[in-house]
Amino acid sequence: MTLSIGDALKLSPLAHGQLIAGAEGIARNLCDVHVRNQLAQNHLINYGELVVLPSTSIQDPIELASCVQVLDEQHAAALVIADKGIPRQLIEQCDALQLPLIQISDEAPLHDLEQQLLHTIHSHKEKSALIDKQRQLMRFALQDEQPAALFDNIAYILNYPIAIISCSKQLLFNNSGLKPQKLLEHVPDKAAADMYIKTENSICCLSIMSHHECIGYLLIVLKREYCYAQEELLFIQAAEVLAAHLGRFMNAELSPDSYRWSLALQLYLQHKISDEAFVQAAAAYWGKHRAAQSYTCLIASVKPRDNQQQLQRLGQQLNLLGSTYGFACFNLIDEQQLITIMLQQDEHANPQAVEAELEKLLAGDSHPRLQIAISKPKTQLQQLLAAYEECLHALEMCEQLKITKQLIRFADLEFNYILQQIPPAIRAQFSSSLLRPLLEKDEQYKAEILKTLDAYLEHEASVSETAKALFVHRNTVLYRIDKVSELLGLDFKKMSHLMQLKLALVFYKLAASP
User: In terms of Cα–Cα distance, which of 217, 222, 261, 266 is closest to 243?
Assistant: First the structure.
């Protein structure tokens, strides 16, 4: 964004001048200023130059008009003359060429005017560069996907060397050339409780805050001892972009190795890197850690989907649960879902205890409207993608089958998932044929019986457990089961008939889902 003559006329010192010709050319760019004693046709004029002539330079009007033609051909910005009596031929020539002609007082100190205008141009260039950086940062932040070279991109946009340090004083990135110990001198001893920004010895240090919690620091190595106020706003914006990115990786300990591992995991789950590339990236991390005995994926989905604070809190609770029962947890937030990979590192690890604690956690008031899907354990690292997709399928089936349980195991729904692969026409024909006598009943009766059958199958055909789940007497359940078995022509004491009922109900729900 370049300063125009029109902009300059609103600013001191040209605001005291008068535009007397070439008004249609005020959009010309102003890039430079020179005071010249006189004009000559062989003078070289810079692009966007504002030519300032003192009153004593007024020469032959015809010759001056010819020189103005040269100014226009060399794309000068405007002509400023410190004189009260400007020749009519010059005014007409400037109007014809649409070259702004500005008249100022012949008493104006031209050297001061030149310096003020040069300062104005320089300030405008700096402001324009700052706005351009802000735009780049905004475009960068609004990208659907952050590139792997996130830190390099931030440094490139800011046009300063940077370093990024975690709260535990781990160096995540550094292209400043300064030694880590030198950089750490600028990081507070205690994690910042609020936004922290301090410039000292040409280094600006800002806290990276995610949901009111400090997760690291951004250090910017300046070219001067101080930081402009407008630059501080840009640096804060850069810290916000980093917070949005790093806040997705909620590992118990954010270190360079764990960050690279989490980033590789994210790219792998998005099908951005191959199995081989992912295993190679993971091997670099596991070279310093004992390999896992099994891998389990969890996906937590919350409604409303913008409740990231709840997902952040759950991620911290999963870290604690995992460490308690022999698992290492790696968390990231992707598309408003918390994805957790639990790595079993201890042969005495207790996955059942983790699930039991999760059920207690979900039964409380701290995580309403939250569903967590759990994959089947995998023995190989490259099976993590399959585990991730199992969780996605489990959440999708819960929506299709209107399952409201908060903790969902893919193993419990795998049968339904397999049935889902049967062509829809065959599913619809089977369910309508078997359930037609029930579906032809009135809505209230139909809804009551379908609810009873769902509970009956969910509790492994136990009448007592079904009665508890429905808060009715067991005789009520027995009566309903007897009536519907007679209506459908099924004997629920036979496993094959129960299987037919299960298939018909699953197919019916799949057909009813959008």
Answer: 217
Cβ contact 347:273 at 8 Å: no
The pLDDT assigned to 455 comes to 92
SS3 277: helix
Q: What does the radius of gyration of the chain's CA atoms come to, in whole angstroms?
A: 36
Distance in angstroms (rounded) separating the CA atoms of residues 29 and 43: 20
Which H/E stretch holds residue 343?
A: strand 337-344
Structure tokens at 227: 């930081």
Task: Give burial (CB, 10 Å; 0-12/13-18/19+) of 22.
Answer: buried
Angle between helices 384-400 and 256-269 (to 10 degrees): 60
The amino acid at 504: A
For residue 487, give both structure tokens: 């209506």
By C-alpha distance, which of 503, 513, 498 is closest to 418? 503
Residue 369 has pLDDT above 80, yes or no: no
Tokens of 244: 């949005």
The length of the chain is 514
Percent of residues, the chain, with pLDDT higher than 70: 90
Sheet holding 162-166, edge to edge: 171-174, 162-166, 213-221, 203-210, 197-200
416-466 residue pLDDT tens = 888 888 898 998 899 999 999 999 999 999 999 999 999 999 898 999 999
Are 157 and 151 contacting, i.e. CB atoms less than 8 angstroms apart?
no
Two tokens at 243?
């917070």
Handedness of CA 271, 372, 420, 294 (dihedral sign): positive
Distance CA 465, CA 409 (A): 20
What is the C-alpha separation between 182 and 162, in angstroms, rounded? 13
Q: Which two tokens stand for residue 174?
A: 């550094």
Alpha carbon distance, N-terminus to C-terminus of the chain: 50
Q: Which of 407, 307, 421 is nearest to 357 (CA)?
A: 407
Instruction: Write down the pLDDT at residue 394.
Output: 92
Kindly tell me the number of DSSP H helices and DSSP E strands found in the chain: 18, 15
Rounded CA separation 346/325 (Å): 9
In Å, what is the CA distance from 86 to each residue of 37, 43, 106, 128?
16, 21, 11, 35
Residue 195 gets the label, from left (phi > 0), alpha (psi -120 to 50) or beta, of beta
